[in-house]
């Protein structure tokens, strides 16, 4: 149990376009989901905390208008990178919380050309 | 703010030998959780072991054990009988009272046959 999926696993988009990444908890309900960003050979950096039915809480330095997070149901959170630029290219990982434990998705590699 | 420090960017161990990965953290909280995660080349985060701060007994999971020194704010991971499949990035993590995770910079473990 406690499986988290992400879609897509890889995406390439042109500069200036928007891309949506989905995070789903497949076999449990998650009131809280987290979005992380990981640059090559670096650690995971928390971007935002997503709570079902309410606005996401963003970490300092993360542009909320650029990284739109929606947590519309107990099993789905989405991250939309708006007006993407090459510097947004990164590996994005979500996690879903159940009874305080975090379960990680497999990640999404975003490349902006 | 909680910070997690891993001072060993890279470690190497001979197959079947034992290796210890270091982690220190800083917090003013008295109750918290600490984790070690493994990230293989697939980038999927895999939970290795967790420790609850209020428990004095060190956590153990098969070949993996921790040395938790609460007063020193130290949380090292010992891998016994190292196997080739243990080669990966290892991240030490602290879970805050808000349930989000703070990760260390990571240690890349190489296992030599």
What can you tell me about this protein's structure?
The complex is a heterodimer of chains A (113) and B (113). Chain A has 113 residues and is mostly beta strands. Chain A contains no helices and eleven strands. In chain A, the strands form two sheets. In chain A, strands 2, 4, 5, 6, 9, 10 and 11 form a seven-stranded mixed sheet that branches. Chain A has a four-stranded antiparallel sheet with strand order 1-3-8-7, with no helix packed on it. In chain A, strand 9 and strand 10 (101-104) form a beta hairpin. Chain A is globular. Chain A starts with a strand and ends with a strand. The mean pLDDT of chain A is 93. Chain B is an all-beta fold. Chain B is built from no helices and twelve strands. In chain B, the strands form three sheets. In chain B, strands 2, 5, 6, 10, 11 and 12 form a six-stranded mixed sheet that branches. In chain B, strands 3-9-8-7 form a four-stranded antiparallel sheet, with no helix packed on it. A two-stranded antiparallel sheet of chain B has the order 1-4. In chain B, a hairpin with a 4-residue loop joins strand 8 (64-69) and strand 9 (74-79). Chain B is globular, with a radius of gyration of 13 Å. The interface between A and B is medium-sized, with 19 and 16 residues.
């Amino acid at each position: 149990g406690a499986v988290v999926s992400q879609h897509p696993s890889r995406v390439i988009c042109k500069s200036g376009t928007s891309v949506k990444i989905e995070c789903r908890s497949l076999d449990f309900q998650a009131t809280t989901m987290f979005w992380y960003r990981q640059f090559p050979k670096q650690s995971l950096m928390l971007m935002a905390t997503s709570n079902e039915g309410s606005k996401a809480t963003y970490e300092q330095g993360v542009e909320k208008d650029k990284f739109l997070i929606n947590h519309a149901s107990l099993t789905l959170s989405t991250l939309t990178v708006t007006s993407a630029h090459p510097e947004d290219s990164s590996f994005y990982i979500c996690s879903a919380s159940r009874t305080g434990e975090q379960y990680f998705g497999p990640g999404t590699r975003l490349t902006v050309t | 703010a909680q910070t997690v420090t891993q001072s060993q960017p890279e470690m190497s161990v001979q197959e079947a030998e034992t290796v210890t990965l270091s982690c220190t953290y800083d917090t003013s909280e008295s109750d918290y959780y600490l984790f070690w995660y493994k990230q293989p080349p697939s980038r999927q985060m895999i939970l290795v072991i967790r420790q609850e701060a209020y428990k004095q007994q060190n956590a153990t999971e098969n070949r993996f054990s921790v040395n938790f020194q609460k007063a020193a704010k130290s949380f090292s991971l010992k891998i016994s009988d190292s196997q080739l499949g243990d080669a990966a990035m290892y991240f030490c993590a602290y879970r805050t009272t808000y349930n989000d995770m703070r990760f260390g910079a990571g240690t890349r473990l190489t296992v030599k046959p």
